[in-house]
Specification:
The structure holds 2 protein chains of 2 kinds. By secondary structure, chain A is mainly alpha-helical. Chain A is 75% helix and 1% strand. In chain A, a hairpin with a 6-residue loop joins β1 (53-54) and β2. Chain B has one domain (60-280): Orthogonal Bundle (MetI-like fold), CATH 1.10.3720. Chain B has 10 helices and 2 strands, in the order ααββαααααααα. A two-stranded antiparallel ribbon of chain B has the order 1-2. Classes of the chains: A mainly alpha, B mainly alpha.
């Protein structure tokens, strides 16, 4: 009796164990199920490289190139800002800060990770957006640059915590060896510790970028959402994520527009899948 | 000029310190602004009244209740599943291909953009299972989203229970499940609790997954069943800051304040539990 109940419980535990795989497959399957319907009427290159996103004109034009470029410009901007600051922050916390300061800085970063993105979007709207508007004297502060700055900030917890782990995992003997040879603390960090933890730091950057591409609410609130090909970082842009969030509520289930939003979902899912798998490879290479 | 390693070090360390302080001070500034401007809006009426005059007056009671329903539903779904998944990974799994795939799947679940969860919830729960735009659809979507958090923290706390505890239990004749149930799990409860609260706080703050699965633009009453729509705090903040013109700044900051405090309090509780647990740890 006891044996059979133990058997059943083990099966339940096993099934729970593989639910993560099931959910990832389900997500992909249902995105495909709805998204692929689009390609009965629209060709894949026209979708990915089409220059016009006019989903409610007649007939609808469903080219997502402006949205891809919108996401790209915001992501590149955020990466340029967040990577040096984030890695600098991680080095300071992991290698230099005295214990008390280290605890303080770490809780600050953890606090940032806890703030909901809609709250950060709201704060961006009332502080950053008017600031950018006045600084550059432009008609609207809802620009790619505002989005980049806010996203750089939001990527910080990801970059800092993973880079910090990578720095900690460098064996102590490397550090001692360098110091024993007469290197200064900074020379040790720059020439020994950073190169030794490079794959983990690369992973932190990739996951930070993944976080930026997937971010939705804050971006939707402060980038202006104009679906046209951006020519400058001081123009409003519309990202892939914001398009889904802003338009899904107004579309008819089963329309071309509806399928197109799911097709954008497929693109986002594939990007995040690629980013996460590659970052995971980097993290495992280290060990 | 001759290169001076000591001076280079000083300059480098100063720049690093600045980058760390920049981030943390901005976090402090944001929280300060919201508290300073939001606390004035706070009143008993703001917390317990329905929104009035097209959300330009009144309170946010339905949104608070909606968020409580949603996170409760999400945790009812995600907690048992997440803990059992963690038990599998920490106690049963072998170092093989399947385990590697499970870990990769968890990493990917954690990385899927929140709006894609919204699409998934719409396609699976709202349309395919015909649950409609409802509390249950929204809760399940949020539940799947916080699953990776619960699995990761639970697994970590299960694995930190020393192996010798299990060996003693086995040597007394207890079966594997018996050992897990009565020896391993009880010792891992603080860690699991921490993960649960962090998951709750994440679910409470997310907007994109509930956009098309549950959130109501304006619904000044309480839900009657789990198949009803509800308002939710994060979506309400989005609505009054971008969709409704001329909402008083006080009301917007007040809503942001309530949401922020709710989330930060949950995180604080999680941190305290973790701290107490580390202090009391007997091994």
């Amino acid at each position: 009796m006891r044996k059979s109940s133990e058997f059943i419980i083990e099966k339940i535990v096993f099934l729970s164990g593989i639910t993560s795989i099931i959910f990832v497959l389900l997500i992909f399957l249902f995105l495909l199920k709805e998204g692929l319907m689009l390609f009965k009427t629209v060709k894949v290159p026209d979708f990915l490289l089409g220059k016009n996103w006019y989903p409610i004109s007649e007939p609808p034009q469903l080219g997502i190139l402006p949205l891809i470029l919108g996401s790209l410009i915001v992501t590149v901007g955020a990466t340029i800002i967040s990577v040096p600051i984030g890695i600098g922050c991680a080095i300071y916390i992991a290698e230099i800060a005295p214990l008390k300061l280290k605890e303080f800085l770490k809780s600050g970063i953890e606090l940032l990770a806890a703030i909901p993105s809609v709250v950060l979007g709201f704060i961006g709207m009332v502080t950053l957006v008017p600031f950018i508007k006045h600084l550059f004297n432009i008609p609207t502060g809802l620009t790619a640059l505002s989005g980049s700055i806010m996203l750089a900030f939001m990527a910080m917890p990801t970059i800092v915590s993973i880079a910090e782990d990578a720095l900690y995992s460098v064996p102590k003997s490397y550090r001692e060896g360098a110091l024993a040879l007469g290197a200064t603390h900074w020379q040790t960090i720059w020439r020994v510790i950073l190169p030794a933890s490079s794959s983990g730091i690369l992973a932190s950057v990739m996951l930070g970028i993944g976080r930026v591409i997937g971010e939705t609410m804050a971006v939707m609130m402060i980038t202006g959402n104009a679906a046209r090909i951006p020519s400058s970082i001081l123009q409003p842009v519309r990202t892939l994520t914001a398009t889904i969030a802003a338009e899904m509520g107004e579309t008819v289930v089963g329309s071309e527009h509806y399928f197109a939003l799911f097709a954008i979902g497929i693109v986002l899912f594939l990007i995040s899948f690629l980013v996460n798998v590659t970052a995971d490879l980097f993290l495992h290479k280290k060990q | 000029m001759k290169r001076n390693p000591q001076r280079t070090e000083k300059i480098a360390f100063f720049i690093l310190l600045l980058s760390a302080l920049l981030v943390v001070m901005l976090v402090g500034l944001i929280i300060f602004i919201i508290i300073e401007k939001g606390i004035g809006a706070l009143s008993w009426q703001f917390l317990t009244d329905i929104p009035r005059q097209g959300m330009r007056a009144g309170g946010i009671f339905p949104a608070i209740i909606g968020t409580i329903y949603l996170v409760t539903g999400a945790i009812i779904f995600a907690l048992p599943l997440g803990v059992l998944a963690a038990v599998y990974l920490s106690e049963y799994s072998k170092d093989n291909f399947l385990t590697r795939m499970i870990k990769l799947a968890i990493v990917n679940l954690a990385g899927v953009p929140s709006v894609v969860y919204g699409l998934f919830g719409l396609a699976l729960f709202v349309i395919f299972f015909k649950l409609g735009v409802s509390i249950i659809s929204g809760s399940l979507t949020l539940g799947i989203m916080i699953l990776p958090i619960i699995i990761a923290t639970s697994r970590e706390s299960l694995e930190s229970v020393p192996y010798i505890f299990r060996e003693v239990s086995f040597s007394l004749g207890a079966s594997k499940w018996h050992t897990i149930r009565h020896v391993v799990l009880p010792n891992a409860i603080p860690g699991i609790l921490t993960g649960t609260i962090l998951g709750l706080s994440r679910a409470a703050g997310e907007t994109a997954p509930i956009l098309f699965t549950v959130a109501a633009f304006y619904l000044p009453r309480l839900p009657k069943s789990i198949f009803d729509q509800v308002m939710a705090l994060p979506y309400h903040l989005y609505v009054i800051s971008t969709q409704v013109p001329n909402v008083e700044e006080k009301i917007r900051f007040g809503t942001a304040f309530v949401l922020l405090i709710l989330v930060l309090l949950m995180n604080l509780v999680a941190i305290i539990i973790r701290y107490q647990f580390r202090k009391k740890k007997r091994w």
